[in-house]
Structures are given as structure tokens and as C-alpha cells.
Amino acid sequence: MSELKSQDAIESDNILQVRNLAVEFHTETGRTKALQGVSFDVPRGQVTAIIGESGSGKSVTASAIMRLIQPPGRVTAGSIDFAPSGSEPYDVLALVDKDSRLEQLRGDHISMVFQEPMTALAPVYTVGNQVAEAILCHREVSKKVAWDEAANMLQRVGIDDLQRRMQQYPFEFSGGMRQRVVIAMALVCQPDLLICDEPTTALDVTIQAEILTLIRQLKGELNNSVLFITHDIGVVAQLADHVVVMQGGRVLEAGTVRQVLKQPMHPYSKGLMAAIPGLAPKGQRLATVASVVGATDITTAYPLTRLADGRQISLSPSQLKAFGHE
Questions:
Q1: Contact, 169 vs 131, CB < 8 A?
Q2: pTM for the full predicted model
């Protein structure tokens, strides 16, 4: 049995390595530990999904990667090693506020698609101006070049009648079309890593399918890496290569999508799989996580252990022994 150990250098096949990340929020009611020793990898050129219930720390993790944690929150420990294409790796958390790499990080090297597009779009600026502005913030090009590139990206995400659409405001777009605009803004600078924070939650099922297909298609065209945050396991099965399971601000299990979804080892992961909505037999209630997982299975924090097949898991020594891992 070998414990996961921190590394001085980022592995060449990973674009992002999060190690022992801890985030706290100080409020009038006391201190809340939002993240506790979170560690996981994002392999280059692949889709990594973070799953878990609401409040498990998924969005806080994304905000920490982008250095967007604001008071009363603060990062108290850990490292986030990022390896952009053509540049030396660096620890995102070690950058000072005036470091030029921090400006490049947000929107250029790493972009985020938020859950609610209306909070990411300014209501008083046209769609065309907002997508073009994303280019002008990171590259020294003329407004015409930026406008033309914005039009090209909007067309790639499925928005037609560009001459009229680019002059319209966000309120003139449907929810699905606004999400396409946000995706265009995130990808227009061709970032190395795209973070999607539950981008389909507020959309109906048919639009969800279109957005997921679009993200998968653009990932293939741009060859970037994706960190996809969701609580929808069906989405993970369609889209992801690797899965990280979070609960209570901790990582409980991480592995390939087949390992975690087909053969979950942690009791909490098994509970998530059992709670997927479906048709229950007559007279039988649908399972919930609470009805499957005992409190002691998830309250005790054990260090992540890397198994021989590459999976990482947080279990007690006795539980690991029961699975045949000494």
C-alpha cells in the first residue's frame, strides 16, 4: 500500500496537479472548512470530471484554480501546479497579484464556463463586443481582427445570422444560445484548460445534449483539456475520461470513468451510483445517498492511497485490506 505523495515537479502528461488544497471561509457564525487536503490530476488533452452532491466543494475548487477566492474566503494550504503549452510550469497559488502570468492565466491559458450565463454576460454590451473584448484583453490585435475572430468563434458554436446576432444583447438570446455565447467567450483565445462549472444545469434536456455535444466537438478541434464540474453522473458517462469524487470538501475516490462508474470502491461512490434516478419496482422507493452510505463511511478523513491500477481512494487500512490491498 503506497500513499499519494506530493511531487516537486509536475508530471509531463498532466496539465494541472492539485495537491493538498485547503480553503476556509471566515464568517460571523465561525470558520467553515470548504476544502480539506484536496489532491487530483488533470491529464493533458483529456476530460476530467468532478462529481459530488451540492456543497461538496466542486465550485470552490474551480475558483481556487482560477485564483478567484475572495474574502471572507482564503486558501490556507496546498499547491496548484499548472503547465501551459510552451511555458514553464508554475504554482498558481504562489503568483503575486501583479504577476503578468496571473492575467494570462484567467481567460488566456485557463477559461471558465459558468453555470448561469446571465451572470457571466454584461447586460448593457452587445454579444459581439463581449466576445471580441475577450480577445482584446489578452492579445495585441486591432478591433477589426478581434471582431472577425469573435464572429468565427460564434459561428463555430452554432450561432447563425452573425451580422444581426452580434449586435444584439444577451436578453435577446435564449438560455441555450446564451450558454453558447459564454462557451465562445471562453474558447476564443484557445485556452489550454477549459473549466466548465455545471454549464448545463439550468437548461432543458434537449439543449443540455446540444451543449455537451458542442463541448466534446470543440475539445476535439482545439485539442485542449477540460475540467467538467457536475452532479449529473449521466453527463460524466458521456463526456469524461477521468472522474474525481468529492464530498464534504475532500476527494474520496479518483480514477478512470470506467473504474469509478462501473466498479466504485468507496462507499460514498457506491451511494452516488445507487442514487441515480430510475424506475423503481412497484412499492419500492428510489435510493438516496443517505439510505446507502453510513455516516462513518464519509466522516473519517483517510489519506488518498494510489492503488496498482492507478485509482486513488480514501479508505481505512482495514477497508483496503478487505479489497486485497495491503
A1: no
A2: 0.89
Sheet holding 14-27, edge to edge: 30-43, 14-27, 73-82, 90-91
Nearest CA-CA partner of 135 in 185, 193, 89: 185
Q: Output the tens digit of pLDDT for each of the chain's 326 residues.
A: 333 333 445 666 899 999 999 999 998 888 999 999 999 999 999 999 999 988 899 999 999 999 999 999 999 999 999 999 888 999 999 999 889 899 889 888 999 998 888 888 999 999 999 999 999 999 899 999 999 999 999 999 999 999 999 999 999 999 889 999 999 999 999 999 999 998 887 778 888 888 888 888 889 888 899 999 998 888 898 899 999 999 999 999 999 999 999 999 998 898 888 877 765 667 666 666 766 676 666 667 788 999 888 899 998 888 787 776 66
Where b means 16+ CB within 10 Å and e means fewer, 85-101 reads eeeebbebbebeeeeeb
Question: Cis bond leading into 303, ω under 30°?
Answer: no
Of 151, 110, 111, 114, the residue nearest 129 (C-alpha): 151
In this structure, what C-alpha cell is assigned to residue 127? Answer: 454579444
Kind of pairing, strands 47-51 and 242-247? parallel
DSSP label at residue 323: T
The residue ranges of every structural domain in the chain are: 10-248, 249-276+284-326
CATH class for the domain made up of 10-248: alpha beta
* Pairing verdict, β 242-247 and 2-3: unpaired
Q: With H, G, I as helix, E, B as strand and everything else as coil, classify residue 188.
A: coil
